[in-house]
Amino acid sequence: MFLALLFGLSVLRISFALQNNSFFEDIEPSLFLIGIYFDTITLALLGLPVFLFINPLTTYLNDKGRAIVLLLTKSYLVLLSLLVLVLNTWDIAYYSYTQKRSGFSYFIHVLTGTESGSLAGEFLAEFWWLPLLFLLLFIPVCLLIIGLKLPHSLKKKQTIWLRFFVMLLVVILLARGGFQLRPIGIIDATALSSLEQAPIVLNTTFTVIKTTDDGSFDLLSYHNEKELAELLPKASQGVVHHPLPAKTNVVVIILESFGSNYAGPNAPASFTPFLDSLLQQSLFFEHAISNGRTSMDAVPAILASMPSWLPESYILSPFCSNQLNSLPELLKEQGYATSFFHGAKEGSMNFKSFTKAIGVTSYVGLETYPQQSHFDGNWGVWDHQMLPFFGRELGRAKQPFFSALFTLSSHHPYKVPAQFEKRLKAGPEPLCRSITYTDLSLRQFFKRFHNEDWFKNTLFVITADHVGPTCQQQFQTLDWRYRIPIAFYHPSIKLPKPVKNVVFQQIDIMPTVLDLLGIKKSAFQLGSSCYDPKQRQKMVYDNGNLISFVRNGSHLVPVAWTPYVKRKYTKAQRQMSRQMSALYQFYMNSLIENHCARQTIK
Predict the structure, then answer these.
(1) Is the pTM of this model over 0.70?
(2) Per-residue 3-state assignment (H helix, E strand, C coil) for 245-270
(3) Is residue 304 a contact partner of residue 358, using CB atoms and an 8 Å limit?
(4) How many Å is the maximal CA-CA distance in the chain?
(5) Measured in whole angstroms, how far is the alpha carbon of residue 469 from the centre of its chain?
(6) Which of 274, 419, 469, 601 is deepest in the core (most CB within 10 A)?
(7) Yes or no: is domain 225-229+243-601 CATH 3.30.450.40?
């Protein structure tokens, strides 16, 4: 029966590809083989409840009891087959409207929405052949289910239980998709294919299962279109500042847990002397924030200007398969080679899948690092080994290039190599020594490569992923929880000054880089270039609230807004809250409608 369903899913995938072939530039045969892998995972997930019915205890039942168990099993399998075939038949037609596989929230909307009934007639008239295709697949599967019988009892009870547990373990392994750290998710389809081809690889049942925990999302309507236009500052679409030569390389260095409490020129007690000196020669933002609290929040924000203003990281959200116009993709269109380096295992935090989805061609992780002896025993390659390797690889790369490096040694358990211990500054927390070690590794990187030609033609973007964990009471305020150093450094050219007193955030990095390179910005934009005269809100999601930071002298003052919660605001804060709600409405509706890239907006 499961083989018949697997065959049915393959037929529906072929029909899906043929019906929607205009949305895919290239449909390779290998995509259908990868699709069978995802279909197997889906059927294994749905098949797990069968083990509740068919287990060794049924051998102790009388004939009537076994008949009831058989009826329950068949009923469940019929419902399972109905669900699998209906969802995937439906999306053959509906994909043309959304350009992505439907998720759980969409089907809740179909069941509860008022427009579904009125559209059903037109939908069936246009796609009249889909019900016929569904019946051709569903009826044979039902006949197979009707003919099922419970397995005969084996004489040896030990053999029954052994077979049961072996089968259960195999199905659990298939349901996870293998032995990797995390169960296979939606975003992994992009790693095995591409962002554009992922809908062919996926099946709709899989995407629904993987988004059931994410709740139902409805379009927001806090403001009408006129109010949105007034409340959302328009980004300058023309070239505002372009002091850098065409084809300038771009290197983004993301420093693990380098919060402004312990790192950067403005830290009360800095443990990063080299970084401090470098940032003082850079376009450095004294008031900068991360758009999230985790590394998974940081990578979409930094590389694609996509914050995680959701209960979960964007990478783990039901919107992770939306198309984005990211920095790697936009630079690739300008002839740039693109790469991403992270010394951890390649499945770590779904970075490989996500970066490939946004236009990164080459991903280097622990498995592809040439010397496995440099493994730190916990996370991956030591920073003092990874940074020189990164520099050597950039020296071999064809220019112009875009590349990002994510350091990892300043992460719990904060181990440092024995040969560096005496050279490191201790602090009130173990994190302090590890960021001093990474700072020393960064110093060696810049010292070693600063005379190379590629280095002199490179714009360096230096940022932290988020603030590291701290037990120090003075750093428990909202602003310290998000304050990080962010800077732009070019070894040969002095960068122009930004808008006065600007508060900078990770999602502002992409539009600022595009301004500096003289490249037209993306049609979809949540952040602001530091050169835009009007800035969008500097916003984070924190425990169900949206918080925006404004500058007040040397401090960042948070202003909170939560949907349908009344607060006492000053006149200025009330206007800020309206701008926050407008930006959040634009963000959520763009995610829901998959309008996060010029292709899907068009």
Answers:
(1) yes
(2) CCCCEEEEEEECCCCCCCCCCCCCCC
(3) yes
(4) 86
(5) 22
(6) 274
(7) no
